[in-house]
Amino acid sequence: MLKFIILFSFLVSICIGQELSFEIKDANPNTKVSLFQYDEFKWNIVDSAFGIIPKIKISKYPLGVYAFKIDQSNLNEIILSPKEKNISLIGKLQNFKNGDYEILNSQENFLLDKVIGIFLKTNYLLDSVKSQMQKIVNLDPKFNEKTKQLADMRKIIRIDANKKLNEIIETQKTSFVSQNIAPVFLFPIQENNYNWSIQYDSYTSFSFFEYFSNYPNSSNITNTPFFELKLNEFLNQFYFKDIYWQKKQIDIVMKKFNDNNVFYYLAEFFLKKDATLALEYLENQYANTCGLTSNSLNLLQKSKALKIGNILPNLKISNDKNEIIEINNLFSNSQYSVLIFWSSICNHCKNEIPKWNDLIEKSLTKKYKWISISMDNEVQNWKKGIEKWHKNALHFSDLKGIESFLVKDLNIQFTPTIVIVDEKGKIIVKNPKLDQLKSLLD
What's the CATH number of domain 316-441, 3.20.20.190, 3.40.50.300, 3.30.420.40, 3.40.30.10? Predict the structure, then answer.
């Protein structure tokens, strides 16, 4: 019985002691602190507290990356660990908003600051060398010699950074930061064993294939905002519209990190790029091997909403007379229906409207319908915009802008987006160029 009481008291003391307190020197009773947890590449609010010294019980939260914000400040990342009890954050309100505050009683957050500091300093040095490279002209007789010296310097900078990061990884083996965040910031190293002109041409290829070579394979690594930052950098830096390179990008990432978090991010990235073939490849090659969650499955479904050959999802939306109309019911008595998703503030749309009007005029004797669906959120802008359209165009909008179901369910990523359907609502063409549109409707 005595052992039980001692054990119970110990557990209670741990739970009571596990607090995240904010000593905000100029706070007031209405000062609000919100706590967010990072999961599936997004932040979800999980707790909040008010007061001069707001405190949040953290005993119920698992080890991982979190973030807080005070009132309307930006998010500030923080590591919460069951092993660390009374974590205190100290500073003035403006310091917190600027990310300049002191953290006490947390080795994990001390290491996080150290890792990020190494990364930022290294990037500063690399950028400095890069600026020197850009000043060397190609006609300089010592071009190869000078650029190779600078390339060697960049290599030394990377090696030095990796030495510091690896020291943290090797000496802090039980730390979440050292094992799951520090590896994300390791730099790829390339041997400079030939002249710079060859070296320069091959560096992109090297970086592409070796980008994640230093990373251990762990879901703890992939489910952090720091990995998201590096993954986003990789995808944008090496993105090509060619499906061959899109497949290479997918393979490099998924063969290294075959989990739902990475699958979801890749799907979201290529969805925003409207890269249909890349999405199909991602689904066909990896969907059955990485335990997809409902969020990933929903994202895949969304990617097929405007796929050629599919039936257009039913669109129930208000017209310019404030009547709720099921647009799909308009298709049955038309050979083709041309749906144009546009916005009155889209300059490209404004330039295209006269060309669309010409096509509408030329197709008056044919069984075509021209359906204008606006992405506006201001009724005045919408009504003023449709005055420039041909009188035979049909106009619709839910006036919700980027919050519209058109964005969320149909993946309308840009305006104008053009979709042509047949009388059954089957998608025939998506985003044809003007000449293609003319030839199809002739």
Answer: 3.40.30.10
Strands 102-104, 427-430: pairing kind: unpaired
In sequence order, which ranges of 223-346 are alpha helices (DSSP H)?
225-237, 243-256, 260-272, 276-286, 294-303
pTM equals 0.73
- Residue 86 CB coordination number (10 Å): 15
C-alpha separations of 189 from 207, 211, 347 in Å: 9, 10, 45
What tokens does 287 get? 């969907």
Fold of 15-105: Immunoglobulin-like (2.60.40)
- Cβ 224 vs Cβ 65: under 8 Å: yes
Query: What is the C-alpha to C-alpha distance for residues 328 and 205, in angstroms, rounded to an integer?
Result: 48
* Cα distances (Å, whole numbers) of residue 377 to 43, 319, 321, 400: 26, 14, 16, 5
Give the three-state DSSP class for 218. coil
Give the single-character DSSP code of 311. B
**Residue 272, pLDDT above cutoff 90:** no
Residue 149 pLDDT exceeds 50: yes
**Residue 404: predicted pLDDT:** 85
DSSP string, 247-267: HHHHHHHHHH--SHHHHHHHH
> What length is written for the chain?
442
Query: DSSP E strands: which ranges in 11-85?
Result: 19-24, 32-39, 42-50, 55-57, 64-70, 76-80
130 close to 124: Cβ distance less than 8 angstroms: no
- Work out the number of other CB atoms within 10 angstroms of the CB of residue 198: 11
